[in-house]
Amino acid sequence: MDSIPNKNITIEQLDEMFNDISDHGQWDLSKPLLWGYFFADNDPNKLELVIPKILSMGYTVVDIFQAKKENENEADSFYLHVEKIEIHNSKSLDKTNDEFYIFANQNGLGSYDGMDVGPVEQ
């Protein structure tokens, strides 16, 4: 993890997530699912600037949205939400996460903030 800048989602956490999904029968992990990925920054313009790169990587841009503040004194924080229909296991998702940590770092974004998953809408 030392060579990946700002990495905070471990392979062990991903193993646990995949086991939980499998154990609870939420979705069939052998089939394509809709994976969402989030980048954060205090400047929405910086998020806008990386959209062409994200699109060229085959992802769809969902939106840029402002995070809700815990209190009024907090700085504004914005998220870029992108998604892609993919099949993942913990190793492939860890690789994607690593690529996004590096992408965020190389493009001067505040952070790659993680992912979510859901069924593909029919």
Give the class-level CATH name of the domain at 36-67 and 76-116: Alpha Beta
CATH fold-level name of the domain at 36-67 and 76-116: Alpha-Beta Plaits
Biggest sheet layout: 4 strands, antiparallel
| Helix amount | 25-40%
Number of distinct beta strands: 4
- Radius of gyration, in angstroms, nearest whole number: 15 Å
Known CATH architecture of the domain at 36-67 and 76-116: 2-Layer Sandwich
Shape: globular
In short:
Helix content is 34%, strand content 27%. The chain has 122 residues and is α+β, with helices and mostly antiparallel strands.
Written account of the structure:
The protein is an alpha+beta fold and 122 residues long. It has a domain at 36-67 and 76-116: Alpha-Beta Plaits. The chain is 34% helix and 27% strand. It is built from four helices and four strands; from the N terminus they run αβααββαβ. The chain has helices spanning 11-23, 44-49, 51-56, 90-106; strands at residues 33-41, 60-66, 78-86, 111-118. A four-stranded antiparallel sheet has the order 2-3-1-4. Helix 1 (11-23) packs across helix 4. It is globular. The mean pLDDT is 94.
Describe the structure using short key phrases.
34% helix; 4 strands; Alpha-Beta Plaits; alpha+beta; 4 helices; four-stranded antiparallel beta sheet; 122 residues
